[in-house]
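INFO  loader      accepted 1 record
INFO  loader      residues=387
INFO  predictor   begin
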Amino acid sequence: MRPNRPIYLDNHATTPVDPRVLAAMRPWWEENFANPHSVEHAMGRAAEAAVEMARGHVADLIGASASEIILTSGATEANNIAIKGAARFAGAGERRRVITLATEHKCVLESVRDLAAEGFEPVVLPVRPDGLLELDVLREALEVPTLLVSVMAVNNEIGVVQPLAEIGALVKAAGALFHSDAAQGCGRIPLDVAELGVDLLSISGHKIYGPKGIGALYVRRRPRVRLAPLFSGGGQERGLRSGTLATPLVVGLGEAARIAAIEGMLDAGRIAGQREVFLGRLRAEVPGLRVNASQEHRVAGNTNITFPGGVDAQALMAAAPEVCVSTGSACSSAAVEPSYVLAALGMPEAEARSSLRVGIGRFTSPAEAEQGAALLAAAWRSLVEQD
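INFO  predictor   done
INFO  writer      dumping tokens
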């Protein structure tokens, strides 16, 4: 039986706004629309207080202090500020090497590569077939004086959780800065910046059931991490990110972070159960289905799967239009080539073209998980039978 509405299984591309988040945001559009920097009057001061409360909720989620949270338009901007800002502040110092992984988000890879034009040495490390970084590979790369290492907490396509604490210890011993794109990790796994040894950490609102267009960058204050801003303006956000803050979006980010701090681990347990329902049904109906990357070190809701029989993933999605899934990062969806993340695992191109990313989230029901799997299986059978 066909569903009455689409079954949304793409929670790594974006999550729906939690109704509690929407309720918290609404008054700051309708009742108090003041500029939070207009502290000369009561409405402006109230907006500023709401922003600072939200900043505190974001800090609490990652074990930071509110003064270490810089509000941005999202994780892409936060990643750019962290990587380019650290390099440009360092200038022509001894440390010119900037290290990242082949499976990082495009905005991290491109930020690192852009620095080559400014005299820095971009180094993109490989990963193992399970998607994890081999620590000895990083240790060897750090033998050259290094300015910064950027490793994402949770991969946005294959869901693997990198060993951040171990990476942080190596980076610290080498005297480099450690940045992590935690857009897919915040709210899904426990993150404490002190325990992980992270100096810079990026957050995205719309990955934690908050609104799009808002995010944050954690910048360690002790010992202080110095960054150069990417653009000039009025000096807001400690001079690192000038511009008028959008109070409703900031409040939404803060409320999403507050809820994640309380409910995130409960969500993870429930989501893991839905994932097993989904995989159980799909495996029963699609012999030879393969789940990609590490099964032990992964976030609860992610499933990256390769379908057998040479079925094209784009054709599979077209044959199951009721199911919202993807072939990889939404930021790379315009590209025709197969996923560069799967290629970095050593997967042949033909298999990469037969792979889908499934993201189960807070509001996915067991019935949706099972029905989504059944519809994908039926679509796969129809394409195999055509051949």
